[in-house]
Amino acid sequence: MVYSFKGHIPVVHESSFVHPLAAVTGNVIIGKNCYIGPGAAIRGDWGEIILEDGVNVQENCTVHMFPGKSIRFRESAHIGHGAVIHGANLGRNCLIGMNSVIMDDAVIGDECIVGAMAFVKAESVFEPRQLIVGNPAKAIKEVTNQMIAWKTAGTKLYQRLPADCHESLREVEPLREKPLDRPEQEDFYKTLQDFRKEN
Q1: Beta-carbon neighbour count of residue 6 at 10 Å?
Q2: 185 against 85, higher pLDDT
Q3: Long-range contact list for 46-50, CB < 8 A, 24+ apart?
Q4: 9, 18, 55, 106 - which has most CB atoms within 10 Å?
Q5: Alpha-carbon torsion, ordered 46, 72, 113, 185, to 10 deg
Q6: What residue spans carry the region label Disordered (predicted)?
Q7: Domain total in the chain
Q8: Which whole number is the average pLDDT over 167-186?
Q9: Please, are residues 78 and 57 in contact by the beta-carbon 8 Å criterion?
Q10: Which has more pLDDT, 184 or 24?
């Protein structure tokens, strides 16, 4: 669902995928290879929202701001399920954990990792490569090279997902029983613990 608002029509690069059950409104610019999941709401009704290339905004996320603001998610920012970003700017290749809340005029630096359910207060500023957790959120240590490599690998999966969705996602009627030739699900993800063992 893509809506114009007061003359602003969202701009979405053709390589990106916005799920039909997401809502993108108004002054929103979405770059290349971005994924917007079902239930996500990206509201550019009161201000400008820019998603640079390779950003993903997962299921049930909310992106909004106070009037007159412009916010930017830098390249490869990764916003986990259920997160709320209200008027904050996100650095390149950062990870925003599930159900976290990032408030107005906060700045999350490049390659930061924000833990699940963290609450980042308005006007908080975090330098690059910080692990940020808690309520209120605090930086507790520097993100290691191994952690950022794992995060980057996970984000690459989401950067391939738009093409997979364009190619194969279709609305269908459900089957009434499991077919004998049902395809096997691919196993292509490693947890951080598995990643550490191999690297």
Answers
A1: 8
A2: 85
A3: 47/71, 47/87, 49/73
A4: 55
A5: 90
A6: 174-199
A7: 1
A8: 91
A9: no
A10: 24
Q: Report the DSSP beta bridge partners of residue 30.
A: 12, 51
- Residue keyed to tokens 């770059």: 31
Mean pLDDT on 17-30: 98
Are 23 and 8 in contact, with CB atoms under 8 Å apart? Answer: no
Token reading at 20: 């039909």
| Average pLDDT of every residue of the chain | 95
Q: What pLDDT, on the 0 to 100 scale, is given for residue 192?
A: 67
- In this structure, how many other beta carbons lie within 10 angstroms of the beta carbon of residue 65? 21
The residue segments making up the domain with residue 126 are 2-142
Does 113 fall in a domain? Answer: yes
- Any residues with CB less than 8 A from the CB of 82 and at least 6 apart, and which? 58, 59, 60, 61, 98, 99
Q: Is-contact 151 159, C-beta < 8 A?
A: no
